[in-house]
Amino acid sequence: MNLDWIVRESDSILVLLVWHLGLSVVPVVIGLAMALPLGWVAHRSGAFKSVVLGTTGLLYTVPSLALFVMLPSILGTRILDPLNVVVALTVYTVALLVRTVSDGLDSVPVETVQAAQAMGYRTLQRLVSVELPVAVPVIAAGLRVAVVSNVSVVSIAALIGTQQLGLLFTQGAQLRFLTPIIVGIVLCLVLAVVLDGLVVLLARRLTPWTPRAVHA
Amino acid sequence: MIDYLLDPAHWTGSDSIGTLLVQHLIYTGLSLLVAAVIGVPIGLYVGHTGKGTFFIAGVANALRALPTLGLVILLVIVIAPAFASELAFVIPSLIVLVLLAIPPIMTNTYAGVRAVDAAAVDAAVGMGYRPLKVLFAVQVPCALPLILSGFRGATLQVISTATIAAYVSLGGLGRLIIDGRAQNDYDQMLAGAVLVAALALLVDLGIGLIGRFAVSPGLTRRRIRATAAQPVLATTATA
């Protein structure tokens, strides 16, 4: 480890960290926004469910580097455009979360749904104020997987040259110099742990009724 | 891109598309084999005995967060000097591929064995099956769908990471992408990307087919009934 190098490069490392954070988080937010309606439709209709889950499963099998390379020809973007990375990770996030949202809605007890129905809730109202809140723990579990794996996948985009912590890996490889690689791995892990923790906290805030450990 | 794929010059010689494809398949098969030899026994042991559950969950989570690209490069720089010749690049990459393939195989084997109906296990014990026979005649066949889905996840991970490892001079289809990037040849990159994606899809389909033939019909029948029961539940829920 070369601490001088870390101090000297701290400004540019910080820039890469911020980019990495953005490239990991933005796709999760967009992906969740898209997966909620899709997952709801999948939950409601059996036939549509196998179509949606089949398609998203297929998208999930495409290796990330291949997707990063293919997207410019589909979107008409330049290869270095960060948009490619955002779209690719959004695709993965949607693929993962559609199943989670659908499973989460399936996990809502029938009695709960029927009670809401009997109290006069309309479909949309019931979805937003009863079914989704009850499904939060399941959806949050999927969200944790999505966030953590995104942090790792983003770094692969360094191979096509996008700004983020992965550039520390390619830089280290070119210079045969371990410090940037170790710094990059550690920062990726820290970022993953912090984001994972944030999802857990958010899920707890959204479900104040769930039992938790009592502090003395 | 189509022109690139149809150009006969790209299909002959030592770095032809065919050679790269075979290399990719060999790396993938080899890594999966080694990962299975390590991951399946551990998963079976933990699933059968219930010891070490915490260890399995921890390893799986930690490895998901590890950036694969960083890991590959780190290992190549650290291990490569120990090998002469081309092995310097192949061995570290293969180690990473094996490391990444173990967790899905191990956790799914464990989860599959754990999820086997306790009544079936009790019945086998009651019929006088020895522990090993319970494991291999009851628990493993019942767990097979989940074990195979672990292999599916591992295979995709390995195909994907083998592509990335082209950056540290590993062969395989990733060469087309990495070399294309270096030479600013987008057609070559795109050809490589499409081939990798097609390979992943085909292998994934193949494993799905294996599952169809390998899984006991008794299990699949129960699964059909179970999924058929869900829509009934869903209609009462939404009625």
TrEMBL record, chain A:
It holds the Pfam family BPD_transp_1. Its main location: membrane. InterPro entries: ABC_transp_perm/SBD, MetI-like, MetI-like_sf. GO terms for cellular component: plasma membrane. Residues 17-204 form the ABC transmembrane type-1 domain. It is a multi-pass membrane protein. Keywords: Membrane, Transmembrane, Transmembrane helix, Transport. It is found in: Cell membrane; Membrane. The chain crosses the membrane at residues 12-38, 50-71, 83-102, 134-160, 181-203. It comes from the Bacteria. GO terms for biological process: glycine betaine transport; transmembrane transport. Belongs to the binding-protein-dependent transport system permease family. PANTHER family: GLYCINE BETAINE/L-PROLINE TRANSPORT SYSTEM PERMEASE PROTEIN PROW (PTHR30177), OSMOPROTECTANT IMPORT PERMEASE PROTEIN OSMW (PTHR30177:SF4). This is Glycine/betaine ABC transporter permease. It comes from Promicromonospora soli.
From TrEMBL, chain B:
It is found in: Cell membrane; Membrane. InterPro entries: ABC_transp_perm/SBD, MetI-like, MetI-like_sf. One of its GO terms (cellular component) is plasma membrane. The chain crosses the membrane at residues 25-48, 54-80, 87-106, 158-178, 190-215. Residues 21-207 form the ABC transmembrane type-1 domain. It is a multi-pass membrane protein. Keywords: Membrane, Transmembrane, Transmembrane helix, Transport. It comes from the Bacteria. SUPFAM superfamilies: MetI-like. One of its GO terms (biological process) is glycine betaine transport. Its main location: membrane. Belongs to the binding-protein-dependent transport system permease family. This is ABC transporter permease. It comes from Promicromonospora soli.
